[in-house]
Amino acid sequence: MAEPPPRGAERDLFRDTWVRYLGYANEVGEAFRSLVPAAVVWLSYGVSSSYVLADAIDKGKKAGDDFPPLPLLD
Predict the structure, then answer these.
(1) 12 Rama sector, left if φ>0, alpha if ψ -120 to 50, beta otherwise
(2) pTM of the model
C-alpha cells in the first residue's frame, strides 16, 4: 500500500482514494466475460477509459498551472 501524502500536501483524487480502482474496471469485466452480457464488458471498458481520461486531464491542468502565462504578441 502506498504511503499517505505528507501533511499539507494536496491529496490526489485519482491516486489516493478509492477512485483509482475504477481504472481496473475493464479487468473485472474481462474476468466475467463468459458470465455477463457483452454490454457489461463494454461498459467496464467505458468506466476504465473515463477514469484514464479524467486523470490525464487533471494531471495536465496541474502541470499547466506551474508555467507562467505566455506573453501576448502584437
Answers:
(1) beta
(2) 0.74
